[in-house]
Amino acid sequence: MEFLDLAKSRYTTKEYDSKKKIADEKIRLLKEIVRLSPSSINSQPWKFIFISDEKTKNELSVASNWNRQKISDASNLVVFCAIDDIEKFEEQIKETLPEGSINYYNQFVKPKGETEIKSWLQRQVYLSLGFFLSACVSLDIDSTPMEGIKNEEYDKILQLNGYKTLFAVAIGYRNPGDTNQPAITPKSRLPLEQIIRSI
């Protein structure tokens, strides 16, 4: 399928079929694809936690406000985390990045201070979200990106150390009656001429 067709068919799933599970091979592919996500200077300041264990998934669903049912019914939950320990991050890039990339960080990011550094690190994780959602639709997997979660509770449940939860994505297969799917509720987007400018 052409990428444009995938973009037209992808949507934020509101109801999942709790009986349908994603095959292990597709989960393996998603893990490899998200690992290859782009980030500024190849900084990779992230951790992706794939959850299929029902007990853990249910614990997290309770800490997910109005997203509870989606998480309970979805096949898997993927939690996207950003590194939150600047010293740990700087050690990581010293071990993995070329000198030019480290110099970029030291000259243009580090002088801005802790708040701006952490904001920059978190933005890299958001880049991976678009990559991940596109990968899901290419594998015929439905998805729901969610910021409406209790991040600190997620951190405790997942026992994160040096990382912080940013958002989660429920993945699985839609309930045929999900009214948010484009076949029932057409996608609504601003017109091209309103948001695209060509020079």
Helix content: 40-55%
Main β-sheet: number of strands, strand sense, barrel status? 4 strands, antiparallel
The CATH architecture assignment turns out to be 3-Layer(aba) Sandwich
How do the strands line up in the largest sheet?
1-2-4-3
Shape label:
globular
Number of helical elements: 9
- Topology order in helix (H) and strand (E) letters: HHEHHEHHHEHEH
How many distinct folded domains? 1
What is the CATH third-level topology name? NADH Oxidase
CATH superfamily: NADH Oxidase
Structural class computed from helices and strand pairing? alpha+beta
Number of strands: 4
Low-confidence stretches: none
Distance between the termini: 31 Å
What's the topology here?
Elements: H1 3-9, H2 24-35, E1 46-51, H3 54-62, H4 68-73, E2 76-83, H5 86-96, H6 99-109, H7 114-138, E3 142-146, H8 151-157, E4 163-172, H9 192-195
Antiparallel strand pairs: 1-2, 2-4, 3-4
Structural account:
With 199 residues, this protein is of the alpha+beta class. It has one domain: 3-Layer(aba) Sandwich (NADH Oxidase). The protein has nine helices and four strands; from the N terminus they run ααβααβαααβαβα. A four-stranded antiparallel beta sheet has the order 1-2-4-3, sandwiched between helices. The chain is globular. It starts with a helix and ends with a helix. The relative contact order is 0.23.
